[in-house]
Every structure is written in structure tokens, then in C-alpha cells.
């Protein structure tokens, strides 16, 4: 099989030679470097490559070329090579062109010339992009094969577990691929599918996550039984704490029951996380953060659930689903939550393109003069409707119940009643959504007579509930009525700390009602639910844990 290709294009022969030299030195073993002195020369080379069935992994293209600019060249190759990564080489004066190219051609990065030394300015950027490319593009390989039925939930579960844990595999459908049927064996073997076949010939029929994780080389057993810091959950908060804990010398273990990345790992594109001008997919962010935490020394146990917590002062003990226990000096609960999502056809593809969950009310200002809907009957929905009414032309509050009194505070009900551009539709649910690329129409159904009507709307803000993953600390730390963990000043009742708080000092900002047990991210009560917020809390928790350990 031929190597994937990196294409370098620059009209200056000296610069082109330097680019090609630097690329060959670092990537020559795994990639073929093809160079061209102009856009048209590169297009001719590409026609030849395509004819031979070669794959292009990366374009490194100069912006300032006389006959065809770098951006123009990239725009012309995007349709044929949508998965290839794209880098523009620029001078200071080209920065604006490069930023526009992020939107126009999906540019992945721009690099200022010169990039000496390449070890500092070129290779780190290219390494990350090529890792992302390899993770996303199914290159031919003789690795793990998953043989199953395309639309079967069991096959989906195995594929989802492997891909969310960044384990490459090839899916083979027994219904359409003779090779898959040959691997599965004679007869109707559906009851035994999915079948996972490993390169050493091991065959696992309908494996559970734990077995799959073991065979796929993920860590499922802790290396020791006592840690300075144990973190429950490897979403952004847990991974953030893992990076800071391990890098600051704490013996750190992170326990994850499913896959690293948490809710963020399921997001197709996170646009608002600092440092990624093009946005980043949740999968890529999870993969990078996991690699970073491991490199710095954190142990990450996957497919292992924390099932209980007890305190033998000052030690905290976590029971795990694999039957073992881990003890630690400080414990961080970063187990996040699950949001309830809108279960109507087409809704998933419009998330982030008009359909927004939770904290996305920050999008409110972009809906100036438009018609929007808010779904939900509790305070969060009422607050969102009020906030949106300041910008939107109309806000329709869609409530399933007979009244909003049941779950909303009176002050909000009064405010909504006094706001002329908010309409309340009781006894109503969302039956459908539609839009080309972004939300355009929402169909509402009366829950009484089943009648439906479709209205134009650019925004649909959903607040139909969230469930914190905090059962495992039930009865150990204080939680609010909905089960979110209380920390810091939220523990105060009528200006006093709860009676069970045993110390003379106040609880730290992210400390729970038990000294030395901290919480970060979406599992906390009264928190901003965002990736950056969760990562930040993970980092802050570690610095507070240092202070706790100094005084404990
Ligand atoms: C579809 C979607 C899109 C989003 N898009 C954006 C966006 O664009 N920008 C943005 O800023 N925010 C976005 N968010 C919100 C953001 O993802 C969350 O705020 C963030 O992931 C919270 O991080 P966390 O670590 O606190 O919790 P989570 O991400 O929920 O992670 C918690 C982890 O803990 C694990 N866990 C739970 N219980 C246990 C247990 N008992 N034992 C072991 N492990 C356990 C879970 O499996 C999970 O992996 C989005 C959320 C969703 C659902």
C-alpha cells in the first residue's frame, strides 16, 4: 500500500526546497512528500496521484503565489480532498486572508514564515493535524475488525465505545459485505454479533465494555491501591484536573466508566473553546486531552465505574465496578451529568445550528429581531425566555404541562406575564424541526387534540432537564434538591455552615460538605455548564487540593 501524501506548494524555489526538506526529515518515513512550484503544477500532480488511488493527508501551501493564491488553490482542491488537512504559509500582511480562509476553505492552521526552528514552530502543529487526520480517515490497516449489522444497537454500542475511546477499527456489515459474512461464519449468526476480531486472531462475540477495553489495550486496572488524588469522571473537568494534578506531582488516578471526553466528547464541533479558531470536534479534544493527561503521568482507567464512596478520616475510599477499592488523600467528583435531549427527527443534525441546549443562552444576542422558541417549564427555561426577550422579536415558551406554576418561581411567572413579546404555549410539545443547514421551522403539537402547526423560527433553546451523576456520593456529601453537589459558599444555609462541617476553617471554593472531597464541572450545583468552565474548575480544584493537603 502506498504512503499517504503531503503536498507542499510554493512559488519561491528556495522556500519550497526548505519546506520539502523539513517535511521529509520528520515525516518522510510515513508520508510521501510531493512538491509543486505553483497551484497549477500542484493540480497536475494531484490528478496523477488521484489516478493511482493515493490519499492526500496534508496540504502546506504558500498564500502569496502570482497566478493562483494559496486560498484559491485550497478552495479548488477541497471538494476532491475534504478530509485532507490544510495549512497556509503566510507573511504578516496575509493574516486577514488566512483568518477568512478558516471559514472559506476550512483552513486548519496558518503558519508565519519563517518557521525556524521547525521543532518548535512547524512539527508540533503538523503532528497534531496528522494525528487528527489519521484518527478520522479510515486508512487501510490490519487492525481490529468489528463484524456486525449496520443498524443494530449492539453493533452501534461496540463502535461507539471504540471510537469514543480513540481505538481504530474497521466496521464490516454482514448484510452487504461477503468478506464480513465469511469472517462471521456459515449460517445466520446474527445472535452472536457483533463479532470483534483482533489482529492476533482473538474473536470476541458481543463483548462487554470491560472485555473490549482489556483487549483493545486500554487501562482497566489501577497500578496501585493508594493515590494522592482520585478523580471520578474523565470529562473536561476530570481530564483538566488530571493534567494539573499529575503535572504538579500528585499521584493521580482518573476513573471513567465509559469513554474519556464526557459530554464534550459527543459534540460534533466545539466552536467556543479558546485556542481553536476553527473549532474542534469533541472527539479530537478528548483524544488530545487524554494523551496530555497520560503523558504527564495520570493513570486513566476506562470502562470502570466508581460505584461508591466512603470516608475513613482522613482517607477517602472509592469502590469500583471491577470489585477493587482505591484509597486516596483527596477525592474529586467530576462525574458530570446527562442532559435530556429533544427526541424528534432531524433535531440532532441542527444542534449548534439553531438548536441549543442549556448554557447556550449566550447565543441570545445573535437572535436580535428574530423569532425564537424556548422549550421547558422550569426556572431555567423561564430565565432563558426573559433573557431572549431582550433581543428576539418574539419568544414562544413551549410547556408540556397544564400550567407554568407547577415548576417555575412566581417572580419569573410575573416577569413573563409582564413581557409583551413572550407568548406561552401550554400543553404543547415539539413535534418536528426543519431547516437547510440551520433551523428554519418548528412544528408544535397540542398534547390534547393532537393538532399541529408549523412556525418559522431561527432558534430553539431546550431546557427539558438534566440528571447529575451523583448517586455514588448520595448520603456522603450534601446535594441540592435535584442531586447537584453543593460546594463552597453554596453549602451555607441562612449565613451559617452546615452543622456537620467539622473544621474551624471555611470550606474551600470547590470543596463539598466533607473536607478533602471536592467537586468540579457539571455535577456541581449553580455552575456555568461549558467546556472551558469545566476545564477551569478542574485546574482550580487541584490548587485547592494542594491547600487541603498542606493543612490536612
Ligand atoms: C451535545 C453537546 C454539545 C455541547 N457543546 C458544547 C460547546 O460547544 N461548548 C461548550 O462550552 N460546552 C458544550 N457542551 C457542554 C459541555 O460538554 C459540558 O459542560 C462539559 O462536558 C462538562 O464537563 P464535565 O467534565 O463536568 O462533565 P461530563 O462532560 O458530563 O463528563 C463526566 C464524565 O464522568 C463519567 N462518569 C459519570 N459517573 C461516573 C462514575 N460513577 N464512575 C466513573 N465515571 C463516571 C461520565 O461517563 C463522563 O465521561 C455540550 C454538551 C453536549 C451534551
Q: State the total count of DSSP E strands.
A: 26
Largest sheet: 7 strands, mixed
**Uncertain regions: pLDDT < 50 for 5+ in a row?**
none
Number of helices: 14
Bound molecules: flavin-adenine dinucleotide
Percent helix range: 25-40%
Please compute the radius of gyration using only Cα atoms: 27 Å
Distance between the termini: 59 Å
**What's the shape?**
globular
Structural class: alpha/beta
Q: For the residues shown, what is the average pLDDT? A: 91
Question: Can you offer a commentary on this structure?
Answer:
The protein has 552 residues and is of the alpha/beta class. It contains 14 helices and 26 strands. The protein has helices at 13-27, 39-51, 70-77, 95-104, 118-121, 123-136, 153-164, 178-184, 209-215, 236-247, 282-295, 379-389, 410-417, 531-551; strands spanning 5-9, 32-36, 56-62, 85-90, 109-112, 144-148, 169-173, 195-197, 203-205, 226-232, 252-256, 299-302, 306-312, 315-320, 325-333, 337-339, 355-357, 371-375, 394-398, 422-425, 428-434, 441-446, 452-456, 459-462, 466-468, 517-519. The strands form 6 sheets. Strands 10, 11, 12, 13, 14, 15 and 26 form a 7-stranded mixed sheet that branches. Helix 4 links the parallel strand 4 and strand 5 (109-112). Helix 10 packs parallel to helix 11, helix 10 (236-247) packs across helix 14 and helix 12 packs parallel to helix 13. The longest helix has 21 residues, at 531-551. The chain is globular, with a radius of gyration of 27 Å. The relative contact order is 0.08. The protein binds flavin-adenine dinucleotide (FAD).
